[in-house]
Design a protein that fits this description.
transferase, Guanylate_kinase, 7 helices, Guanylate kinase, GMP kinase activity, globular, five-stranded parallel sheet
Length: 212
């Protein structure tokens, strides 16, 4: 009997799904990119976050978010039911662990539209599964214009701008790390690639667009 593996047997090896993580400051355009990917690239599923933020009139439970009380969120966090979580502008956001692990095991690819804090945690916990992209607006002036347009439910544009500055500083540190490592051409797990600048405007709330 031959010890060689047949081509048919090789094709039976289960493919593990991947996690495509889009992160950015609020208003930078990641949700626009996420919608485009979902519409034009078959096979991606959007990860729906949990949040303690109050539901807006245009949002649907289980489609845009899973809305939780702060106590419910804390129980999920303390029971390790969240892959990542963060507090953003006074509200909590997180990624439920179970649906993501089920999708990856079944070979399905997941798309994440989250803030930079969550992206960093996913890179640490799921390093071998994550492809991470950080998105910036072209200028701070344009970001301010977008945040003013998207002001529904936002507590203070100035607070958002201060947070955006912190997020931009975080991105700059990531870019410096890449430069120090020699700008390797081969992708390495858990690192941001080149930051993308989104010039398209953002629009109304969509599934798991977090946070606006």
């Amino acid at each position: 009997m031959s010890s060689e593996t047949s081509p048919a047997a090789l094709t039976d090896v289960a493919r593990r799904g991947l996690m495509l993580v889009l992160s950015s400051p609020s208003g930078a355009g990641k949700s626009t990119i996420a919608r485009t990917l979902l519409a034009q690239v078959p096979g991606f599923e959007l990860s729906v976050s949990v949040t303690t933020r109050a539901r807006r009139g245009s949002e649907i439970e289980g489609v845009h978010y899973h809305f939780k009380s702060q106590r419910e969120f804390e129980i999920m966090r303390d029971n390790d039911e969240l892959l990542e979580w963060a507090e953003v502008h006074g509200n909590f956001y997180g990624t439920p662990r179970a649906p993501v692990e089920k999708a990856l095991t079944e070979g399905r690819d997941m798309l994440f539209d989250i803030d930079w804090q969550g992206a960093e945690q996913l890179r640490e916990k799921m390093r071998g599964d994550v492809v991470s992209i950080f998105i910036l607006p072209p200028t701070m002036k344009e970001l301010l214009g977008r945040l003013t347009t998207l002001a529904e439910g936002i507590r203070g544009t100035q607070e958002i701008i201060q947070t955006q500055s912190q997020e931009r500083a975080h991105r700059d540190r990531e870019v410096d790390r890449l430069r120090l490592r020699g700008h390797q051409r081969t992708a390495r797990p858990g690192l941001f690639g080149r930051p993308l600048h989104c010039r398209g405007g953002a629009s109304a709330p969509r599934p798991a667009s977090r946070p606006v």
